[in-house]
C-alpha cells in the first residue's frame, strides 16, 4: 500500500474508533457564538472579566478538551443523562428530581447556584464553572445526550454516514453538522433568526423542559434507524431542520441564562 494511502486509512480508522462525547467542535461553537450575539451589555462586560479575550464560542469546547486529563475524569458523567425508552413526562421529571448521580441536569443546577449564591468564588472557579455552563447547555440540546442507558445514548447503534462507519450518537454530535461544510460563524449567520417573542418563550423554560424536548426527539431518532443503516442525503434532508432548531434554541437559552446570572 502506498504510504499516503496507508496514512489516510490509519486516519480514518482513528476517527472512526473515537467514541463520541458531545456536540463536536462545531456544534458547541455555534451554540456559544449564538449566545454571544444575544448577551446584554452588562453580561458581556461581566463575562469578559471572567474569560478575558476567550469568546463563548471558544470556551465552549474546553470541557471536552480536558477529557484527556485524568484529574478531570469526575466530569465525564456531567455531559448527559439517560432515560428508559417510553417513560412519561412525569416519570422523566421525577427521575431528574431524584437522580443523585452526577448528571448534566443536577450539575448544571449546581454550577448555576454557585454563581447565584456563592459570594466567595475565586476567578479560577468562575472560569471553570462558566466554561462548563456554556458546554452543558449545548449538550442538553443534543437529543442523543438524553438517550437510552443500554446503548450509551446511541453510541452503540452502529450506522454508516455515507461511506464512513459511525453511530447514532456521532451522527448527531458531528456528522450532520460537519456535512453542511460551514464554519461556526457562517453556520451562526445562517440560522440565528428568531423573533423577540420566540426568544422570550424559549428562555422562559428550564433545563428539565429542555431535556424533555431532547428526550422526545431522541425517541423519534431511535425509531427512525436500524443497526447498520446507511444514512445519506435523505437523512440530512429530513433532519437538518431539527438539528438547526436545537442549535439555535441552545444558543438563545444559554444567552438567557447568562443574562440572568450576570
Ligand atoms: Zn459534552
Largest sheet: 3 strands, mixed
Q: Which architecture name does CATH use? A: Orthogonal Bundle
**Gross geometry:** globular
- Unreliable spans: 1-20
Order of strands, main sheet, comes to 2-1-3
- Overall average pLDDT: 92
What structural class do helix, strand and pairing data support? mainly alpha
Name the helix and strand elements from N-terminus to C-terminus, one letter apiece: HHHHHHHHEEHHHHEH
Bound molecules: zinc ion
- Over the alpha carbons, how many angstroms does the gyration radius reach? 18 Å
Determine the number of helices (DSSP H or I, runs of at least 4 residues): 13
For this entry, give a set of tags.
13 helices; 262 residues; mainly alpha; binds zinc ion; 4% strand; P1 Nuclease; 3-stranded mixed sheet; globular; disordered N terminus
Summarize the structure.
By secondary structure, this protein is mainly alpha-helical. Helix content is 62%, strand content 4%. The protein has helices spanning 3-17, 25-37, 41-51, 56-59, 62-65, 89-98, 104-117, 123-140, 168-179, 184-191, 196-203, 207-223, 233-261; strands at 158-161, 164-167, 230-231.
